[in-house]
Amino acid sequence: MLELVDIRAGYGRTEVIHGVSLLVPSDGVAAVMGHNGAGKTTLLRAAVGLIKPTRGKVLLNGEDITGLRPSARVARGLAYVPQGQQSFGQLTTAENLRVVADGRKRGKALIAEALDLFPALTTLLDRRAGLLSGGQRQQLAIARALITEPKILILDEPTEGIQPNVVAEIERTVMELTERGDLGVLLVEQHIGFALQSAQHYSILAAGHVTSTGEGGTTSTDAVRRAMAI
Ligand SMILES: Nc1ncnc2c1ncn2[C@@H]1O[C@H](COP(=O)(O)OP(=O)(O)O)[C@@H](O)[C@H]1O
Ligand SMILES: [Mg+2]
After folding, report:
1. Whole-angstrom Cα distance, residue 216 to residue 171?
2. Cβ atoms within 10 Å of 229's Cβ, excluding its own
3. Burial of 148 by CB count in 10 Å (0-12 exposed, 13-18 middle, 19+ buried)?
4. Could you tell me where the DSSP H helices lie in 157-220?
5. Which protein residues touch ligand 1 with a CB less than 6 Å away?
6. Whose CA is nearest to atom 2 of ligand 1?
7. CA nearest 210: which of 13, 27, 43?
């Protein structure tokens, strides 16, 4: 379980996140929705240690990790897939996976498992990541994150700018992953239908505050749109 407790964070003297708390279960999805500029990415950066919160705590399975560097958080089971489908463009798909898998005891098996989840990548192993489509790069980025054997996977807008058939595939994979029961996902998503379908719990972030929360399965996309309009 990942807990964000009353986080305040921002850039320089500008506070962007004004006291946000949320909980990501060990075996389910918590979604964060909100308009562009609401502070979603900033909140995730604070959670993974790329920026230092000015107040509040980050707890991973009860351990206070607020003071840890990003690499130490990865070692404890926090994986982060940033917005914008990033990978090493000059490296091939296979090399991108190996960079993460090398030095891990189960490295080879982990790559095989990741390719099982994203079969589309198996035909692209020798292609440079920079030449993949947005959807393929997103799948590669999630595959890389999974090779670190996370307890909590943090996804920042995984379906942004991706064609609908790949969106469906990413949705299916996220649901499949959490159904196994050993992974929690913090999903930032503007695709409300996907967020509600996969998340047990959601929060709406507006101007750095959580303005509304609810249960995924029982809420309509219209209700979320209305809540986001306030
Ligand atoms: N590196 C940065 N330096 C200064 N301000 C930033 C930086 N990144 C984002 N911001 C500002 O923080 C606010 C929230 O941005 P962001 O967290 O990216 O929102 P979201 O992910 O919800 O679109 C915006 O006003 C944005 O301009
Ligand atoms: Mg963002």
Report:
1. 14
2. 8
3. middle
4. 164-179, 192-198
5. 11, 16, 34, 36-42
6. 11
7. 43
Given a contact cutoff of 8 angstroms between Cβ atoms, the answer to whether 137 and 129 are in contact is: yes
List the chain pLDDT tens, one digit each, 230 residues. 999 999 999 999 999 999 999 999 999 999 999 999 999 999 999 999 999 999 999 999 999 999 999 999 999 999 999 998 777 889 999 999 999 999 899 999 999 999 999 999 999 999 999 999 999 999 999 999 999 999 999 999 999 988 888 888 888 888 888 888 889 999 999 889 989 999 999 999 999 999 999 999 888 999 999 998 87
Which two tokens mark 151? 């307890």
Q: List CB contacts of 215: < 8 A, sequence separation 6 or more.
A: 200, 201, 202
pTM: 0.95
Of the ligands numbered here, which is closest to the C-alpha atom of 11?
A: 1
